[in-house]
Fold these 4 entries.
Entry 1:
Amino acid sequence: MKRRDFFKGSFALAGASMLGGISAPALAQKKLRIKFDSYVSESAGPSRLDQWFLTELEKRTKGEVNVRRFWAQSLNKVGEHLSAVRDNTSEMSLIAPGYYQAELPVTRGLEWYFRMNRADAMQLVCRDLYEQFEPLRKEWEERHRAKVMYWTNWYYAPLVTREPIKSLADIKGKRIRGYGVATEVIERLGGTAVPMAAPEVYTALERGVLDGVYGFDFITSVAYKLHEIAPYFTDIGDGPHAPSATVMSMETWSSMSPEVQQVCKQLVDEIYAGKYAEIFGAAAREYVGKAKAEGVKFSALADAEKARAKAIIQPAQTQGWIENVAKPAGIDGEKMQALIDAAIQKYDGKGTLKRPIEFATQA
């Protein structure tokens, strides 16, 4: 895929199918037409999961639900999707909380690095917190009138640089593009964080404005062709990247028949039971092969350097959210983080989704 095509706008109107589905009486009901609105292209990692959900929803409801897909800001621009779902002008959307930090202070408590290892486990941590921590659920369902259908994330985000990174000392002074809390990681590790919109990153690398990129997930980095200029992809031991949520307006959810709601719940159960890991694993294998063929050099920091990085970032990053975001907003941050710790303990050791370097080095 050409870099310029990654966010190229496109949408598709999918027809009904005869596969699977709901009972015959439901077919007599008026068809429900909804718009799915995403700021990224249909080739992005989370889009693959969204596409599976939407396609299966149409198939299993035998056309009672019809979905128009609007990709790559073709309906709303970055930063507009949360309000569009809240106002029901878009019925479904992928929401990346990093773009809505003021509107989602509780959700920001789920954004951190260096606390766990596996992306598929992080998805389950977010699911449990949504069920267990009422302020998180209310933030979405009452404040923004959006029901989280399922949690997702952006897989893993290696440090992508023009020059090799062999130790934390090599990061110092580097100008690195960051996103969300990734910006804080860069600064704490001695780099200079440069806020920048994703479509501008390739040109900034090309012109030497940036020395590297962090907070760009692996699949997006390769699709954006960042490796043409910055071929060094370094695993710094930071864990999974950027929790996100695919949401539906509460008004749309309430308008669905009980049969359609049940289909949605079944699909979500399948996502959490392994479909997420299956879809992302296949995409990662594909993009690792492509990256290696196009000259990407995969490496990882030594374990001692990873441990140093973790000690620099945590628990300071999490505590910063408690002190600077949770307390001023009246959120019981200590309770939320205790629930997160328990969920990490429960799920992280069971996670299976490999990191890019694991795919790259396997026989």
Note: DSSP finds 14 helices and eleven strands in the chain.
Entry 2:
Amino acid sequence: MFKHILVPLDGSKLAEAALPVAAFLAQVLKAPVTLLHVIEQDAPGEVHRDRHLTASAEAEAYLAETARHAFSPKVKVDWHVHTAAVVDVARSIVDHSADEFQPDLILLCSHGNSGMHDLFFGNIAQQVAAASGTPVLLIKPAESSIPFKINRILVPLDNESIHDKALPTAKELAKACGAQLDLLCVIPTLGTLSGEQAASGNLMPATTTAYLDIAEEIAQEHFQAHLDEFQKNGLPATAEIARGDPAPVITKTAEKIGADLIVFGTHGRAGFDAFWNRSVAASVARRTQIPLLLIPLSE
């Protein structure tokens, strides 16, 4: 599953919200961690009201100290400072991931329930999530001092979930953490359809309603197959099919069951704006404080 974790840091307390999650996953999965700082060209003196690390020696000392205090001695932690100043920090993180470190998980802190394009690290997080072919775990800063753990994992799936390539990752993670899997499929109603589907619904409401009912029946069959498999493997799991607008329903369900993580399969390579403006996963990210694990799916 995840054998190498990359954690980009800018020196701010906000970005450090990713560290407890990284420490938990590194210990549970026995995965090494690399801390990364990218020197930004013409960087501001502060980021999120903290001193911005613009000197390589200062950044090196910061990462070394962070490695010592944020992780168990049992976890192997390395660090790297990209000293050549870059304009596009997100692109640099993606390039480092592909060419140098080759992690199979990137942890990034994102924040804000709206206006994320205006937030420095939120903007970087969204771009890395959209452009990287590597799974990305988006984390919101939390005021709670309760140690991070994963006890329940919500996995939103479509009605063709039998083919969903994100589900194996969710299952492996649930086994490693001793967590319960909660599957959710949200079938739209006529009133919550969008785009071309909404137009079809207006023109052919009876046909569209019948199609949505069939989609629900398919989802029920697939979910039962998943539950049967989980039961054989001794993996605690539930499955629910709901009707409505996917992003709000997913968000409310995650909060209702007390999910510690939401796992999405995403088609991020469609482009930054396509991912962040039209993706259900991105819409959920704006609405919830729960960490989101985004698994890129091949087109």
Note: The CA atoms of residues 267 and 298 lie 7 Å apart.
Entry 3:
Amino acid sequence: MALLEIRNVTKRFGNFTAVDNVSIAVEAGEFFTLLGPSGCGKTTLLRMIAGFDAPDSGEILLDGADIAGLPPEKRPFHTVFQSYALFPHMTVAGNIGFPLKMAGRAPEEIKTRVAEALAEVELTPFAERYPHELSGGQKQRVAFARGLINQPRLLLLDEPLGALDEKLRENMQRELIKLQAEAGVTFIYVTHAQNEALALSHRIAVMHQGKIEQIDEPSRIYNFPVNRFVADFIGKINMLKAQVSEVSAAHLKLTVMGLGEVKVPRREHIKAGDQGVIAIRPEQIRIAARAEDGAAEFQSAGKIKDFFYIGDVTTYIIELANSTRIEALLPNSAPGHAKLFETGDPVVISWQEQSAQFFPD
């Protein structure tokens, strides 16, 4: 039995359906992420789990028991917000120990457990400081420690790293993974940041317009998106208009503007004549100065139109026939080389058949 089960939950605000017949099962000890663009319903769903909002229909079950009637303070959960929600008049130790104080725990137990929590988030020297004396990352660690000190069944995290700069976010992501593994608490994490979701999660639910588009492990979400929305939302991807010209047991044959005839793996329920797009990730495309015999299953000539140097990688914009453009990403792994190609260079792009996918309109 799943720790938390959401069954056919719907939430409306007037004529707007924020969450539309959503069903999810979250296992004990899992780092589960709700991912999607702003307004997709992920925070509304989290608020219903926490008890701040009530569903219009459906059930929310904890260990198989319906918790719809339980107020937030009676649910064995804790929520960490982007704003940290720390008490400004309390010290770091006071903030972390507050849930235990509210639960009526003995002063000695509070002192011991706060000391353990401070050590866990590496804030022992800051125990007597106040929130205004802390950096953003330190405040966030206080919020995590406060959330975990009561050993909740679920820790709910609503865009908790959204206010931090990129470098600090990366550091906090590593700390979160470590904290979750050590505490053994189930995390339900809300974010719109794809890279963050991919880095942190055991499983991801991609949401769009109140519905779940796909639930899967990060690698499968990225490499095997179930539809065009998921493919486009997660990471960078090239999409070119295509029409299915032939369907066989193993693959689809497509006619693609600027590329000609291209084969991709077969998808169910696709027939000849279907319109859609061919999709391929920039890092799956190889660029060479000339054609290579047998190197790949598809090759096409073009020229470098532009490039974007980003330090560890360079993104090349390649112009193909009929002015069709495609992006390819190459690592800057050769010592002393800032880039491999210059604007105007003739090149040949190639990829393996399994790297490309077809999504119907």
Note: Residues 240 and 277 are 5 Å apart (CA to CA).
Entry 4:
Amino acid sequence: MDAFKVIPVESVSQALAGTDQKRRSPWYFDWRVLIPLLSLGIVLALHLALPADPGYRVKTLPYFSRFIMLLLGVFAVLGGLSVFYGRYRERLVYKTWFLGAAFLLLGVYDLITIKFNLIPSLYFPAPERIVEVFLKDWFFLLRCLVYSLRLLLGGFFLGALVGVLTGTLIGWSQRWNYWIMPVIRIIGPIPSTAWIPIALVVFTRATDASLFLIALGVWFPTTILTSSGILNVRKSYFEVSSTLGASTLRNIFSIALPGAAPNVFAGLFNGTSASFLTLMAAEMIGCKFGIGWYINWQRETLAYPNVYAALIVIAVTFSFLISLQFKIRNRVLGWQKGTIRW
């Protein structure tokens, strides 16, 4: 009968709460912080133990092993800090499995390129050659990135401003909706990159054409989702506000736009993706500088390590901008977080 002894629910809850409190306490070591270190150790050991394939004709470099050692040091420090800071430890532990898998995939790519030579090294360079690009060409990459960000942010803010204005007009007024919506249905679905030949003819400078194309790519999703958000706001809110003497502008800025804010941010997120696609296409065709131009230039010279390095720069930059938008969204819409799930 002892084997079937009933344990009170309160005891289980207290045990779980005690474990959770222990993990949140300032001094606690969670073994999961070692997962990235274990993965990096495996990658480094295989890289140093296995020789390069005899058919691999490219000169081997020490940069990849040094890069892995640097990551080992970084995550060792982060793991040590996690022992003393509970909130930081939770964030690190949550990401450890993904980081460990990502590092192992990096090691697999190193094996199939330089160690086993299973894919063409011209088009799929070893990780060490990509790391070399960051070490030797970092300043030029940074200049190209700054030039691209200038175009991207200029076109993004222009498209976002016009998109919110247009979406507000067609979402609020039936008269504006009657005249503008047919134009949006005709022009909006056309990819902004399809307008490149016309933009290069209309605008005298490639920079102005790029700004227009990026703004066009941001304008359409922002307009559609802003108008949709305003149309979904309850009409009773406006009726009560008007009864209390609010003007049309007060209703728009105090009720319509705050109520449509989640849709507005969703449109801006979609517009960010469209702006990056447009930027890359515009720079590859018309501009004489920037990340897109850099990729096209290195591709023509068959310098594929530089191409992959530029793609990594784009991925990191895009991820940073999206994360920044999420932070702004969470701060601006903090009052809606209890009613709208994200």
Note: The radius of gyration is 27 Å.
